[in-house]
Design brief:
It contains 5 helices and 7 strands. With about 170 residues, it is α+β, with helices and mostly antiparallel strands. The chain has a domain of about 30 residues. The strands form 3 sheets. It has a 3-stranded antiparallel β-sheet, with no helix packed on it. It holds the Pfam family MRP-L27.
């Protein structure tokens, strides 16, 4: 009943139960303004925050670095844990020509479907032409002789227009 008399402005007596809308009755039990689990940041104590000041902001470190080990509770000895060290996996982009961002204002590129002939021309054509010019590939009437001794029949490579992949 003393609680009802003391906080009569924020407690209503509803039948046998008390209904409280006050944070005073059910608020934090600790008087510390910060949660000990998380470090205090300079943004938390800046002059524009309630209770903050420039001295408090300058007293804090610039950046908080996470520990890479643990302290033993009984002995207080620090133990380094290799799994707690952050590891950044970054690809080597030397000679990479693409830009990291494509604007939404970029013009749309339309390209037709790739055909086997397009793939051959982009991947193998230069190699085959170079070997032909050097003489390691010889073309005779109905066969092609490769440098490793294999003989390919020309009839197997002739494709009719109707049989081409679209």
């Amino acid at each position: 009943m003393q609680a009802i008399q003391r906080f009569s402005s924020c407690v209503c007596h509803c039948g046998r139960r008390l209904l409280s809308t006050s944070t005073i009755l059910h608020g934090r039990r600790s008087r510390e303004p910060w949660d000990k689990r998380f470090p205090v940041r300079a943004e938390d104590v800046s002059p524009d925050k309630k209770g903050g000041s420039e001295e408090m902001e300058k007293a804090l470190p610039e950046n908080h670095v996470a520990p890479t080990g643990i302290y033993h509770k009984l002995t207080g000895e620090y133990t380094h844990v290799p799994e707690m060290v952050p590891e950044f996996v970054v690809p080597d982009l030397t000679g990479f020509e693409l830009k990291p961002y494509v604007s939404y204002r970029a013009k749309e590129i339309t390209q037709g479907p790739l055909t086997p002939k397009d793939i051959f021309n982009s991947v193998y054509a230069e190699t085959v032409e170079g070997e032909y010019r050097s003489g390691s590939i010889k073309v005779e009437e109905d066969s092609i002789k490769l440098s490793d001794g294999r003989v390919l029949d020309v009839k197997d490579f002739i494709v009719d227009k109707d049989d081409e992949v679209q």
